[in-house]
Design brief:
alpha/beta, 4-stranded mixed β-sheet, about 45% helix, globular, binds guanosine-5'-monophosphate
Length: about 200
């Protein structure tokens, strides 16, 4: 399953997705970006940081599942990791913006789109300011973009309000559990059932 988590910058996507455990079958996709690395970030763990030339080379070789420009930088999802994890039966989590999410949904209509919202815009602004990773101009750009992103909410399958991290994580686990029980995702189990009946 492809699980896409989007939401305004500062809604807590990174924190929430990192709490979705590999032991429960989740694999987190690591994006490529041309954005500057923040001091606390690690190359290959948070992102694959790259130059615009490197990004274009991968994109032009059809190496990206989707890509978008956010606040003047390129971001994209390397397709090879996603395919490998899906083939191994994992739920791949993509933490990407709304433009990328809709690209994936048009290619894979079965992808599950979750929109993560802060409780209020005031709280969003507060979180952006407090995390101290962007300067005032960048905070302003990201805050303004948040309104455009929220406008895309009707295109999403689920809305999760991130008021308390643990509750948001639990909500996402519930969504995934319910999605995994949908008959169309369980054809393997149904074939197994038929085999048993035929063997009676
Ligand atoms: P940040 O610079 O705060 O890490 O990310 C900025 C925005 O880019 C966030 O909304 C984040 O979800 C989004 N983003 C991160 N990786 C990707 C990606 O691979 N593709 C797309 N389309 N957006 C991404």
């Amino acid at each position: 399953m492809l699980l896409i988590i989007s939401g305004p910058s500062g809604s807590g996507k990174g924190t929430v997705t990192k709490k979705l455990l590999p032991s429960q079958g989740y694999a987190l996709s690591i994006s490529m970006t041309t954005r500057q690395k923040r001091p606390e970030e690690r190359n290959g763990t948070d992102y694959f940081f790259c130059t615009p030339e490197e990004f274009h080379t991968v994109r032009d070789a059809d190496g990206l599942l989707e890509h978008a420009t956010f606040s003047g930088n390129y971001y994209g999802t390397p397709v090879s990791y996603v395919n490998q994890q899906i083939n191994e039966g994992r739920t791949v989590v993509l933490e990407i913006d709304v433009i990328g999410a809709l690209q994936v949904k048009s290619k894979y209509p079965e992808a599950v789109l979750v929109f993560l919202m802060p409780p209020t815009f005031r709280e969003l602004r507060h979180r952006l300011e407090c995390r101290g990773t962007e300067d005032e101009d960048e905070i302003e750009r990201r805050f303004r973009r948040a309104w455009d992103e929220v406008a895309m909410l009707p295109k999403y399958d689920y809305l999760v309000i991130n008021d308390a991290i643990d509750q948001a994580v639990e909500d996402i686990n519930l969504i995934v559990s319910a999605e995994r029980l949908k008959p169309r995702r369980s054809s393997g189990k149904i074939n197994h059932f038929h085999d048993n009946i035929n063997g009676m």
